[in-house]
Design a protein that fits this description.
It comes from Orenia metallireducens. The chain has helices at residues 3-16, 36-41, 53-66, 76-89, 91-105, 118-125, 130-151, 159-163; strands spanning 19-20, 30-31, 34-35. The protein is mostly helical. Helix content is 58%, strand content 4%. Helix 4 (76-89) runs parallel beside helix 7 (130-151) and helix 5 packs across helix 7 (130-151).
């Protein structure tokens, strides 16, 4: 694990640092932002309350940082933002947000497929609009939170916490 991942992990812990079992939370039982279903897919079979910080860190490192190719994004703030979004709104949506944001700034668009592949990496890593890209990522994240709350009133209780994630 490298310094960039450590920064990303620490950012996530600011929002996801405890055990949660809210009946209205779509993620169900979670600890450090790891849902029970994600934990099970990664071999953890114990009680979610007992998930250790190191176990959560390993799941995040392998399944979010490495497997999603966020470690290949050269601009650390963009990589960290994608990682944080992947934890909260899902990997495919987070990466699609990156691609959508890039396309809003680029003259030549990339495919929005939710995969950080060679075209996404080339475009993002060579973009001169890093601050604007970061702004758009946060706007798209906020847009997602709004749509969740508009579709399901039970989710409104989470909006203030979610909005903390959209600050630059």
């Amino acid at each position: 694990m490298n310094e960039h991942f450590e920064k990303a992990f620490q950012k996530v812990l600011r929002f996801e640092g405890k055990y949660s079992d809210d009946e209205d939370d779509y993620g169900g039982k979670t600890k450090y932002g790891i849902s029970k279903s994600v934990a099970r897919k990664n071999g953890y079979q114990g009680d979610m309350k007992a998930l250790s910080l190191n176990q959560a860190k390993e799941i995040y490192y392998q399944n979010y940082w490495i497997n999603l190719n966020y470690h290949e994004i050269e601009h650390i703030d963009i990589a960290i933002e994608c990682f944080e979004q992947a934890v909260n709104i899902g990997p495919k949506r987070a990466t699609s947000n990156l691609q959508r944001a890039y396309n809003l700034l680029a003259t030549e668009e990339i495919t929005v497929d939710g995969i950080v592949g060679p075209n996404t990496l080339s475009g993002v890593n060579n973009s001169p609009y890093i601050f604007e890209l970061l702004q758009l990522l946060n706007i798209l994240q906020g847009e997602r939170y709004i749509s969740i709350c508009e579709a399901d009133n039970s989710q409104k209780k989470f909006i203030r916490g979610w909005l903390k994630r959209t600050l630059l």
